Amino acid sequence: MRGFLDSALNTATSNGASYADIRISRHKNQSIRTRENRVDRISNSESYGFGVRVLVDGTWGFAASHRLTKNNVAKITRRALEIAQANKVAQRLPIELAAVESYEDEWLSPIEKDPFQVPIDEKIDLLLTVNAEALKIDGAKYCSSSMLFMNEEKHFASTEGSYIFQNIHRAWPSFTVTAIDMQRGEFETRSLDVSPMGSGYEYVDQSNLIEQAPVIAAEAVQKLTAKSVEPGPKDLILHPSHLWLTIHESVGHPTELDRALGYEANYAGTSFLTVDKMGKLKFGSDIVNFVADKTIDNGLATCGYDDDGVKTTEWHLVKDGIFIDYQTTRDQVHWDEYRNARKSAGLPEVNHSYGCSYGDSWSSIPFQRMPNIHLEPGKESLTLDDLIADTEDGIYIVGDASYSIDQQRYNFQFSGQSFFEIKKGKIVGMLKDVAYQANTQEFWNSCDAICDERSWELGGSYYDGKGQPGQSNAVSHGCSPARFRKVNVLNTQKQI
Fold it and tell me: Do residue 202 and residue 122 come from a single domain?
């Protein structure tokens, strides 16, 4: 690969680029879907090519191709240079890159079993067995199951001397059971509380799909006769399989610096967390701490280096309830609005990128994408059972489902998979038709208890959308169960 990498870098610098980088990458995806006793779909895809990014007179240019030859690499690099020249007409301020060290390194996902080497028949047999076990439960009528696997192999090189190879794996087993009450003509669904993970096929083995199938099916059946919730203020205990999505929408998106400054609004709007709030806004209660982290084991956004060639790290977004920082890339760190706001808030100067640059394909230009973001566990000894026992009147919510949030990531509504009524410290039954409504600041300030690290789990999504043309980013969010006091609970069947 070195010859292809150097061809791009030498062509760029000899034609006036002050900086250039090239990514050569292969992207593999496998999807297997089954329903009841049949295979619905098997899909295998592979994409291979390269993209070259150049900086000319403070302006970006980017071009890409699927034909990897030295002549074509040089040709595409010259096209990127031409695009940079054309872009200068619209460039408001010159791009300035934060300093970065050079690295010659490789980073590999620490997988035990390559999912692409496991026979298809073995995967299908497991999924069909899951379906069969779920349908043994009386009242469970349908079960669909799936496995999704992703692999990125990419070579990165820059004119600053970096040559980096990374091999990243992700895996996601899942199934959904539908229960039907034939007499009343009603149905309920329940999906498995297993999120995608930065892992190999061993994650499928560890997920105990067959053992979980009848449990999830029984819960789907139980939802048919659950009591409809009485709306009003309730204490909520949110399981990590649910809370990860609330973190993603109310913490992850608003702390993207380009959204906060209005430079990005696609898919998720802008952000109420404008830079004047850094170091000042009481985002949550004193026990609320959010860490952005691209190094955590098995995180979907975990890697050794971002697509700017920056070594990944971790940092606080919210510390002791106070909002203190954003997600950044090399070309964002020197934005005046960000630097001046930090200075005004008395926060230390930051001259380095946090490593949040990512392009979802060789044909996609990298830009700021969400890292893994986690709610730190509570510092006091506290289990989920302890938390339930300490709650007088509340609802315990498990699993993620529908949500709605406004274009500033402030006012929101979330639902879940299963809901359990808590009375005088005990779970007394299942509820249905539950959603809760709040705004981001009120919600996180109402957090009065977080379980310790023993209950900490990762959730996440393959599909974090951003940009135009749109790109998809995989990201994880970890947390322990947490309690939120007097949150407005809605009955979804009584809303107009």
Answer: yes
Residues 437 and 406 sit within 8 Å (Cβ to Cβ): no
Assess if residue 392 is contained within a domain.
Answer: yes
- 426-432 and 227-228 strand pairing: parallel
Q: What is the pTM of this model?
A: 0.96
Q: In the chain, which residues have pLDDT < 50?
A: 496
State whether 180 and 239 are in the same domain: no
Residue 213, burial from CB neighbour count under 10 angstroms (0-12, 13-18, 19+): buried
What distance lies between CA 464 and its chain's CA centroid? 6
Do the beta carbons of residue 284 and residue 445 sit within 8 Å? yes
Give residue-wise pLDDT tens across range 44-68.
999 999 999 999 999 999 999 999 9
Per the structure block, which two tokens stand in for 412? 């929101």
Residue 496 lies in a domain: no
- pLDDT score of 494: 78
Q: Name the H helices within 373-447.
A: 384-389, 440-445
- Our count of domains for the chain comes to 2
Looking at 225, 256, 286, which one is the last position of a domain?
225
**Domain identity same for 9 and 157:** yes
| Amino acid at position 361, single letter | S
Q: What is the pLDDT of residues 404-417, one digit of tens each?
A: 999 999 999 999 99
In terms of residue numbers, what domain contains 449? 232-491
pLDDT of residue 496: 47
Instruction: Identify each DSSP E strand in 346-495 by its residue range.
Output: 357-358, 367-368, 372-375, 393-405, 411-423, 426-432, 434-439, 447-450, 457-466, 471-479, 482-491
Helix, strand or coil for residue 460? strand
The residues, any chain, with a CB within 8 Å of residue 456's CB and separated by 6 or more, are 240, 377, 478, 479, 480
